[in-house]
Predict the 3D structure of the following.
Amino acid sequence: MKRFLILIIILSSTASFAQEGSTLFGIQYKPIIPNRIIGTFEQDFSADQLTSSIRQRIGHSYGMMIRHGFTDMFSLEVGLNYNFRKFGLDWAVQDSGYSAVSDVRVVSYEMPVMGLVFIQLGKQFWMDAAIGSSITFFSSDVQVFEPINVGEYFLQEGAYNSKIQGAFLANLGFEYRTKKSGFFHLGASYHLPYAPIMNWAMSYEHTSGQSLSVQTLRGSYLTLDFRYFLPENKDD
């Protein structure tokens, strides 16, 4: 929580040094959408007699952002997001009848910086495209333990390659603007880490040994973006 408050203070300080122009404060919610086209969806971890895999499930991202407009067509956004991701886990041992399913949660805090280019489609409608980068702060490593019998169990372990990592961001969206009620934004974003975020292991442990598969998890994903910007208060 202390880190979260420190990041908010940094974010507010960044906005205070913005150039002259329109500065807006916004909030956003981004569901993380599992799909086979863009982002990590399913990854196989089978080894020896062990058949195992992970599959991305619906996740959530909540946040705030500050947008400063340098011109009618170009703006800069800085933000702070809380990301909650979920993966489904599957294990099975061939010809044994042993199987299990579980899930694991991956939590992170993200500070994105994006440049936006706008195209006006109508009096109050705009289209925007944005690219940028983010710094992501990960919390603790993750582990799931699924017992079978005494001295026999399935195990998942995930260790972050670094607690602080970077990612490429891209966004495409549409915006409806009003002077009194603020701006309403609907879009989609792609989050691509510059390197795999975790070393991930799936194993079947027993008294005679283990079946183990270790791979890297890239951690890319696609989101829908729902944003709302408060109207800017200016003195007449």
Remarks:
- The radius of gyration is 22 Å.
- The chain has one domain: 2-229.
- The longest helix spans residues 2-16.
- Residues 4-20 have pLDDT under 50 and may be disordered.
